[in-house]
Amino acid sequence: MYNEVFVVGDIHGEYKKFKEILKYWDSNRQQLILLGDLCDRGLQSYECFYLAKYLCDNCGAILIKGNHEDLFLKFLNKTEDFKENYIKNGGLKTLESFGYSENNTFKDIVLDIKKNNDKLIEFLTYLPNFYEWNDYIFVHAGVNLKINNWKDTSIRDFMWIREDFHFTPNRLNKTIVFGHTETKILNKNNKYDIWIHDNKIGIDGGAVYGGYLYGLILDVHGIKDYVYV
């Protein structure tokens, strides 16, 4: 059992920031938790995927499934149905990181990704929707606080919920740590500070938009420290 956790927010292809934030992680005493959205919008989603997989396979890290991992898988499985939505959400940058260019078709790149990255696809497919540690819940977007058992939250809400989670009172006696919604939106002041409210902690610092990639350090007593790059 780890004494602390080191929680990383939405990365979105920012591989250099991902590697930089990991310099602050103490792998001997801190459980590494990645809140999802490794891909899309930034330039190096491929590298982010494989670094996260390595950390999960070899270092005990936990990666929570984000809506962008889900969009990537849906695009691979039903390309024509999800093509437009995926590209609109920054997916073209991910495809380019896998080798897509104007000389390819989407069908070509999908076939190539499936052929050469089958272990990665399997890994992403079976990611958890949440992780619990002591009195904390780690999730990509949030949970449904209006139902009797938060674990019955729909798969979509785990990855996509916003206002219904942010503004519903948290009576769980657990602190919920999440990403998905940029903190400058939650703070309503256009600043990317960590958002702390009602036993909820938002750490999507908008790294891909020129904001911060946060590494939040927690122990059983609360926030011990945080770092950002």
Question: Rounded to an integer, what's the Rg over CA atoms?
Answer: 17 Å
Shape: globular
Note the run of SSEs as H and E.
Answer: EHEHEHHHHHEEHHEHEEEE
**Average predicted local confidence, pLDDT:** 97
Fraction in helix: 25-40%
For the largest beta-sheet, the strand count, sense and barrel status come to: 5 strands, mixed
Number of strands: 10
Structural class: alpha/beta
For the terminal residues, how far apart are their CA atoms? 28 Å
Helix count from the secondary structure assignment = 10
Q: Which ranges are low-confidence, i.e. pLDDT below 50, for 5 or more consecutive residues?
A: none
Strand order of the largest sheet: 3-2-1-9-10
Strand content: 15-25%
Descriptive labels:
about 230 residues; alpha/beta; five-stranded mixed beta sheet; 10 helices
Description:
The structure is a single chain. The protein is α/β, with parallel strands linked by helices. Helices cover 37% and strands 21% of the residues. The chain has ten helices and ten strands. The chain has a five-stranded mixed β-sheet with strand order 3-2-1-9-10, with helices on one face. Helix 3 packs antiparallel against helix 4. The radius of gyration is 17 Å and the shape is globular.
